[in-house]
Amino acid sequence: LVKSYPESRMFRQRDRLRPTYDAVIIGGGGHGLATAYYLAKDHGINNVAVLERGYLGGGNTGRNTTIIRSNYLTPAGVKFYDQSLRLWQALSETLDLNLFYTNRGHFTLAHTEASLRTLRWRAEVNKHYGIDSEVVDPQTVQAACPHMDLDCGGAPVMGALYHAPGSIARHDAVAWGYGREADRQGVEIHQQTEVTGIRVEGGRVTGVETIRGAIATPKVICAVAGFTPRILDWVGLRSPLKIHPLQAMVSEPMKAWLDPIIVSSSLHVYVSQTARGELVMGASLDPYELHSTRSTLDFAEGLAARMLDLFPFLSQAKVVRQWAGMADMTPDFAPIMGKTDIEGFYLDAGWGTWGFKATPICGKTMAETVARDRNHELIREFSLDRFSKYALVGEKGAASVGH
Ligand code: FAD
Ligand code: PYC
Fold it and tell me: Is the Cβ atom of 69 under 6 angstroms away from ligand 1?
């Protein structure tokens, strides 16, 4: 039985799994859903199932702080995220859903000569590739953000990287938008459907096992963020991924006072204000490996203290929610994408603390990679075998949050 649109509004609830699909996508986060959408829309491949163990967008897609930017450090990164930003700018229209995409401008603060040097480096790489980034002085920061105490509790702002295209969006709407449009193209979305195994015969994928039975398929796309290592274990692939919790919290809603996005990697704090008036705040990764989404008082206290260094007037503001996601971290802070040594097994992982902004371009490039069985040119440098070839893509200097 397939329920009709008015009943389910965003996408249909399918009661049965088919015995075979042309492709199965594990993970109903933004990346899996975007891949499904572009597989159907760009390549006419719609006999596809997206299998999600929980609910759509319940992973890191619905837990992130929604910062979208393209001011990366490596040529591969800059070109990739620039294409993503272009897709973002039209995405509400593409998906016919208001994603609350808002262009705010993005400041990365420097409090030392060393961090100013890295920001200059980023600005030059960015300009070279036509990305709108420049190093600005403290007065420019103050003019854009009059409420900031530039002294920052004894670590004065010495300058900043200003990236005008920096934006935020509503993250759950991104999952729903891609899900709805994929569904309209004929893709099946199955929530509460955990994949428990992958069948590989003679070096190629033949199917998946799920808690609702087995499915035959020649192509499996693994887009499960913090769950990636356990799935790689099933198929005998090795990666250098480590899973660390990344926490965030929001304040009570308040009158609009913060237009730009402010990031200080040195102080381990970043913040933006949503259309609802809440401050969305985050800090660095938890410093230990942990496969869990529990959050801590230590994080809330530490982040609140650093927020007060930047904005002392917030001392009476209340924190209303706090949570964590599982960040799949690579040693070079770049993703792992594309084909693997197992025929028909494609990987979209290593999105750590930086993958929300990449959602549209991941969908586009993974869909093309799967449809043509050839890595899209924008993701060639992100392949899993770069670690054995020592061809890392050093993106740490642009990672935004401290690590
Ligand atoms: P997810 O959204 O995590 O989706 C993976 C899905 O796979 C999950 O829904 C999970 O339930 C499902 N799954 C797992 N195992 C199975 C299985 N066996 N069977 C079926 N389903 C399975 N990035 C930015 O660009 N900007 C930011 O400001 C930013 N802030 C962040 C703040 C926080 C607190 C966190 C945690 C992350 C942040 N990120 C940010 C990173 C970003 O959230 C992620 O990189 C991105 O959302 C990954 O999307 P995804 O679709 O790959 O993964
Ligand atoms: O990638 O810009 C980013 C980011 C900010 C906070 C977490 N990730």
Answer: no
What is the 242 CA–ligand 1 centroid distance (Å)?
14
Residue located via tokens 């009661």: 15
Residue at token pair 């015995």: 19
> Does the predicted interface ipTM exceed a cut of 0.95?
yes
Q: Which helix (H) or strand (E) holds 280?
A: strand 279-282
| Ligand 1 proximity of 224 Cβ (cutoff 6 Å) | yes
Are 336 and 362 in contact by the 8 Å Cβ rule? The answer is: no
Residue entry with tokens 């594309």: 338
Residue by residue, DSSP assigns 196-245 as EEEEEETTEEEEEEETTEEEE-S-EEE--GGGHHHHHHHHT-----EEEE
- Distance from first CA to last CA of the chain, Å, rounded? 48
d(CA 125, CA 119): 10
Phi and psi dihedrals of 264, rounded to 5? -130, 100
Query: pTM higher than 0.95, yes or no?
Result: yes
Q: Is the pLDDT of residue 180 over 50?
A: yes
Q: Which ligand is nearest to the CA of 35?
A: 1
pLDDT at 6: 54
Q: How far is CA 195 from CA 19, 49, 50, 224, in A?
A: 14, 12, 10, 11
Query: Which pLDDT does position 1 carry in this prediction?
Result: 47
Q: Reduced to 3 states, what is the DSSP secondary structure of residue 348?
A: strand
In short, whether 97's Cβ falls inside 6 Å of ligand 1 is no
Instruction: Tell which atom from ligand 1 comes closest to the C-alpha of 231.
Output: 18
Contact 177, 95 (CB under 8 A): yes
Whether 353 contacts 65, CB under 8 Å: no
